[in-house]
Amino acid sequence: MLYSENSSHETIRIAVVEDDKTVREGLQMLLNGSPGFSCVATYGNGEDAVADLPAVLPDVVLMDINLPGISGIECILALKEQKVPIQFIMLTVFEDSDDIFHSLSAGASGYLLKQTPPVKLLEAIQDVYRGGSPMSGEIARKVVQSFQHPLPDYAAANGLTKREDEILGYLVKGYFYKEIAGELFISVETVRTHIRNIYEKLQVRTRSEAILKYLNSR
Amino acid sequence: MLYSENSSHETIRIAVVEDDKTVREGLQMLLNGSPGFSCVATYGNGEDAVADLPAVLPDVVLMDINLPGISGIECILALKEQKVPIQFIMLTVFEDSDDIFHSLSAGASGYLLKQTPPVKLLEAIQDVYRGGSPMSGEIARKVVQSFQHPLPDYAAANGLTKREDEILGYLVKGYFYKEIAGELFISVETVRTHIRNIYEKLQVRTRSEAILKYLNSR
DNA sequence: GAATCAATCCCCATTGTGTGGTATATTCAC
DNA sequence: GTGAATATACCACACAATGGGGATTGATTC
Question: Which of A20, A201, B9, B142 sits a CA distance of 20 to 30 A from A64?
């Protein structure tokens, strides 16, 4: 992994999609003024970008999320749909969780706040160009946290007792009543009673619903 | 967001868990030789770390994954279990996808390769200390890609026909055979036949197994 | 000590599910 | 056109799952 060297051999071709004229032109100047970077196109809205980018085919696109008309996210979806081989870095003022995850799901490779210093921005572009995924620190933490199941204590949240929670575990794994009874050394009847109470508390009527409800909560 | 300034006011207390003595002592020297950083403990295995860290309570732990005895990941799980307020940065030679996701799920905040240059390592520690989540470029990309549902075409992957895939959809949502039949304007018997074939192809014997298999594949 | 709750067990009845076998019409490929 | 795959449909059996009722024990709370 190499840092801070792009220098001579290759110039990264970049396009900017940003509705604020000042910001857009500021980025353009920054890029064209930095060796190894070239701003090959700028767009003030998503529609123009979607129409034009497949022909321009830059290496990296700096994409604002909040655009008049279609959003930056929809913009990416439209271009990915056409399998245009472009990398996207989202540039936005807010670190809204939904925006972050929607952007990444849509296919963005990086996610930075607009307040990112110019040097870091250039580094990020190189990073993406080389196959990385630059993110502001807080953004990265949100992304990482999405892997850390908060484990909201499903049992407590639904008023399940320990035994019920235990049985729910087996239920979700697909065990037959018989098998659960065998595992816990209790009668099938007892298992049935517990499950009845579980369903009552979870407001479901079948095992399938219970499984879905359980899995969707984590 | 601030960069490259930790200087005087606060010293970050760090512990190192690493079985290779050379690497361990190298890190210790690096940390103690850098202003703003202090290596308060080192461990050659996970067991010692788990036993001792709750008392030492460093701000950040640099954790190797491959340790003799319990792994670095299990180590984190054990400490998180006790709700010890420590941030973890994984340090490893391999960028194995499973390791990455298991580490992050376990509660690691950062993930770096051992080949990361010292300066970047120190930056990463500061980043974690401030609430960020530093990752090597390739690692970040893997994490980001995990949001980009490849949608491996479940039907094709298992040799399901269009109709079977359609029915599997309802099955997984918890619809009764009756309801599926109603939705598709076919008889319940036909639904049953399809489901029999689906189970055969998916190598499952119950609806629960089918749901789990289906959900786990995306 | 009465009330409450968790955990245990039982009966009855109905519906849902899984598996066995079989069959027909259509379509698509060779 | 023969054969394979697909979608459709039926019968029958056995077991699993769900819903209604009720009951006992032990621990905890008030």
Answer: B142
Residue A199, in any domain of the structure: yes
Say yes or no: Cβ of A196 under 7 A from any atom of strand D: yes
Q: Which of A127, A141, A174 faces B212 most closely, judged by CB atoms? A: A174
Distance from residue A198's CA to nucleotide C2's C1', rounded to whole Å? 28
Mean pLDDT estimate for chain A: 88
Chain C nucleotides close to protein (CB under 7 A) are 5-11, 16-23
Domain ranges, residue B152: 147-216
Cβ of A138 within 8 Å of Cβ of B120? The answer is no
Contacts for A5 with CB less than 8 Å, ≥ 6 apart: none
Nucleotide nearest to B178 (CA to C1'): C16
- What tens digit of pLDDT does each residue of B104-141 get? 988 999 999 999 999 999 999 999 999 999 998 888 98
Residue A2 has pLDDT above 80, yes or no: no
Count of structural domains within chain A: 2
Q: Please indicate, yes or no, whether residues B151 and B201 belong to a single structural domain of this protein.
A: yes
B142 part of a folded domain: no
One domain for residues A127 and A163: no
Check whether residue A160 and residue A104 sit in a common domain: no
A101, A149, A174 member nearest B209 (Cβ): A174
Chain B contact for A4, CB < 8 A? no
User: Would residue A38 count as lying in a domain?
Assistant: yes
Q: pLDDT per residue over A38-63, tens digit each? A: 999 999 999 999 999 999 999 999 99
Q: Which residue is nearest to nucleotide C15 (CA to C1')?
A: B176
Q: What are phi and psi of A176, to 5 degrees?
A: -75, 160
Weakest mean pLDDT among A134-138, B46-50, B198-202, B214-218: B214-218
Q: Please check whether residue A142 lies inside any domain of the structure.
A: no
pTM: predicted TM-score of the whole model, two decimal places: 0.73
Distances in Å between the alpha carbon of A183 and those of A112, A200, B199, B206? 51, 23, 26, 19
- Main-chain phi, psi angles of B132, to 5 degrees: -95, -175
Phi/psi class of residue A42: alpha, beta or left (left: φ > 0; alpha: ψ in -120 to 50)?
beta
For residue B207, list chain A residues with Cβ-Cβ distance below 8 A. 207-208
* Residue among A104, A117, A211 whose CB faces B208 most closely: A211
From CA B127, how far away is CA B110, in angstroms rounded? 9
Q: Closest Cα to residue A65, out of A75, A50, A57?
A: A75
